[in-house]
Amino acid sequence: MMLAFYLFKRNLVGENELGQEIFEHKRVAVFAGYMDMLDGSESTDKLAYLEDSTHVILTKDMTVNAEIDDKIEVNGKTYEVTYVDDPVNIGHHLEIYVKGVH
Predict the structure, then answer these.
(1) How many structural domains comprise the chain?
(2) In 3-state terms, what secondary structure has residue 77?
(3) pTM across the whole model
(4) 29 CB contacts (<8 Å, ≥6 apart)?
(5) Rg of the chain taking only CA atoms, in angstroms
(6) How does DSSP assign 56-85, residue by residue?
(7) Residue 78's CB: how many other CB atoms inside 10 A?
(8) What's the CATH code of the domain at 43?
């Protein structure tokens, strides 16, 4: 079943009394796709930067500008983007690797 995903990016909203920057995540896009759970026998064994990923999102929407550390919400749960791939760079679909945020 195709799902609706909400993409959030960090947005600087000001500074605290110590001069530290304060960020919030702002929704910047909605896209459709599929989500699947990863296990240890899949890509996570081969690529160190994917070792923390728990799920992969597949979408044909090539306009999605997801980047590492962005947040994605689906079905009331929040995930952090760990890696984004356009397999073989042919522009067919995106694979967005994510991990659950607690």
Answers:
(1) 1
(2) strand
(3) 0.84
(4) 6, 7, 63, 64, 65
(5) 15
(6) EEEES-TT----TT-EEEETTEEEEEEEEE
(7) 15
(8) 2.40.10.270
